[in-house]
């Protein structure tokens, strides 16, 4: 197996970074604006959030440039579902609006029971002023303790996984993407690092910070009349149409079928 340093060296670059991998920077951030709803309402929401969730800072799952992910407990759940994960993001390094947009995407994907191959959002919100956490944003999600699919692939080294194993992972990824596309959502940063595994080995798509959500037109169809032009994604995975800079249809780029979300399908 490769060392962690060598693994990191093999990771492809990303054109635009998402919000949820970050270094925690505790304390107050004086330049941050107050919440739109006002501090009393924000304080009440934060206290309610932390009465439901408890974070175990001694168990860190990962850390990056914008924050860190820890083990947590959901007091509203029972049994194994009590185990969850908390992403703690430094608001001085990531815009609050970007985080809230990503959470709205996850809320959308979680409606009507969500999908087993898309990570489930449990709760989110700004930190408590009483604990000097107002400079941080907290995102609570279901636990996916099986690690990244990237590590599963790289750890095998020259011993490739069987076709049956690879097929199972691929089906899980495509199934999760189909759910996203049925909601008019294009992930736009599909890669091995953005696919987690549950403790049972179930695929979980994560990191929707670069995603795009289509609106509906007058006929109730996804409005794709304007091409997308933002260059996002990871260089080794992104569809050629995205790199070309001429504009692309997120629900068609890179596939051989007009109903596929081609950009994500190409990356997968």
Automatic annotation (TrEMBL):
Biological process annotations from GO: intracellular signal transduction
UniProt xrefs under PROSITE patterns: PROTEIN_KINASE_DOM, PROTEIN_KINASE_ST
Swiss-Prot/TrEMBL keywords: ATP-binding, Nucleotide-binding
Domain Protein kinase: 55-268
Recorded GO CC terms: cytoplasm
GO molecular function, one term: ATP binding
PANTHER family, sorted: MAP/MICROTUBULE AFFINITY-REGULATING KINASE (PTHR24346), MATERNAL EMBRYONIC LEUCINE ZIPPER KINASE (PTHR24346:SF30)
Protein name according to UniProt: Protein kinase domain-containing protein
Organism this protein belongs to: Emiliania huxleyi (Coccolithophore)
